[in-house]
Write a structure and sequence with these properties.
11 helices, 437 residues
């Protein structure tokens, strides 16, 4: 196998290829980085008459799917072009799309909003419109506000974008492409079930680790709680209405959109950061295996979900102190956020290669996560490499550069202490890291 990790700013964009030329694209990162870094590689596949055997969208955060939206828009544009130029279309002068033609996509794994949320998607999408309006108006007014308020604004903006993008992705798949989602999965949901789902792609085998039905129930519960804490009352069937101002702090403000910068800023400050902790996205997680080599694809999953999945497929025992699972490559979950990778995980799962996809946004990858991996890896486990898709100079945002500098300093200090560790950083003028598995 070969794993190609593209520079995707704060997101994930990975291409996994088998020894016999089968390909899986995992997420698309941000639209701009997709166009700059991943699209040329996909064009190479097209020119070599190779397909994407699977497009895997782990979850609907904007930093994972806006690149996928761009890819599917390209797919749709070329479908329209081919039809217009065909005898049936009868339009031989129809212009060729500006973007290169993507490779054929044979299958798609993606858990859509409506199937994941089971009736909550309507209230969530309606609220997202109000959130987007409030955050847009508030941006100028909170420039000098407390750090917590500015953090809440940033989180709300990202949440609104992710909600809108998730809905847009589902619509685009249905309306603009011939792709069939989640073929072979009951209820069209990619889940870890009592009998784990395994898919063979040439010499490579993919096994679904998560989410489980229990994870989805928790996901819906978190969204329901978020809606209600944000001023939306949700009926058992999913219907919703916004609370009045007298009911307590809520973004909806009785259904009114903010009328001014000042009012919007007050909304953000009143709601506070505790109300905008974005619920876990119930990531699709997969273990890829080929010839005794393995790649653990984690999305933004919580560590306990990954451990549960590995236990369910027999890679881990029930005893937390039992034999750990050794994989060849670990795509470090949630961009190396410390709250998602603790010693409880790293003592049970270790790798020869750790891939950190992030550019310092939200302080990810965090130095403490890097330190935890280095400190808890078995002493006799042999050489290993930490790979980083961004340097400390690549981002145009000062705070992100500082965060990456701190992360890389931690990794390099760990390498000085342990000669088994090598640190590799994607140069600023290159598109991707390539790991031969």
């Amino acid at each position: 196998m070969r794993l190609e990790a593209f520079h995707a700013a704060d997101g994930d964009c990975l291409l996994l290829s088998s020894a016999d030329g089968r390909h899986v694209l995992i997420d698309g990162g941000r639209s701009g980085t997709f166009v700059e870094n991943c699209r040329p590689r996909l064009q190479e596949l097209r020119e070599a008459t190779q397909a994407l055997d699977l497009l895997l969208v782990s979850h609907t955060d904007a930093d994972h799917i806006t690149g996928i939206l761009r890819l599917l828009r390209d797919v749709g544009d070329w479908i329209v072009y081919s039809h217009q130029r065909s005898e049936a279309g009868g339009n031989p002068t129809y212009p060729e799309p500006a973007a290169p033609r993507p490779p054929d996509i044979k299958s798609l794994w993606h858990n859509s909003w409506d199937e994941q949320l089971a009736g909550l998607e309507g209230p969530i999408e309606a609220l997202a419109v109000q959130v987007a309006e409030a955050t847009s108006l508030a941006a100028a007014a909170v420039a000098d506000a407390p750090a917590e308020t500015r953090l809440a604004l940033a989180d709300l903006s990202g949440l609104a974008q992710s909600i809108a993008d998730g809905a847009r992705l589902s619509q685009m798949i249905e309306d603009r492409t011939p792709l069939t989602r989640n073929k072979g999965f009951p209820d069209h949901l990619v889940l870890l079930r009592e009998r784990p789902h395994r898919k063979r792609l040439g010499s490579m085998r993919l096994t679904v680790l998560g989410p489980t039905e229990r994870h989805l129930r928790a996901f819906r519960s978190e969204w329901r709680k978020w809606l209600e804490e944000t001023g939306v009352k949700v009926a058992p069937g999913g219907a919703a209405h916004t609370s009045s101002a007298a009911d307590g702090a809520g973004l909806a403000l009785g259904g009114r959109l903010p009328a001014s910068f000042e009012e919007a800023a007050q909304i953000i400050e009143k709601v506070g950061a505790r109300y905008v902790t974005i619920p876990n996205r119930a990531s699709i997680t997969v273990l890829a295996e080929e010839r005794r080599r393995s790649v653990l694809l984690t999305g933004d999953a919580a560590e306990e979900e990954l451990l549960e999945g590995l236990t369910a497929i027999g890679k881990l025992g029930e005893d937390p102190d039992g034999k750990p699972f050794h994989c060849t490559v670990l795509k470090v979950q949630h961009h190396g956020a410390s709250h998602n990778i603790s010693s409880s995980f790293t003592k049970r799962v270790f790798a020869d290669h750790y891939v950190f996809s992030g550019d310092g946004a939200h302080h990810n990858p965090e130095p403490s996560a890097i330190a935890t991996i280095a400190a808890t890896r078995p002493a006799n486990a042999g050489p290993y490499t930490m790979w980083f898709t961004s340097s400390e100079t690549r981002s145009s945002v000062k705070a992100r550069r500082a965060a990456m500098a701190a992360a890389l300093a931690e990794a390099r200090e760990a390498a000085e202490r342990d000669r088994n560790l090598t640190v590799k950083v994607l140069p600023d003028d290159e598109r991707s890291l390539v790991i031969d598995v």
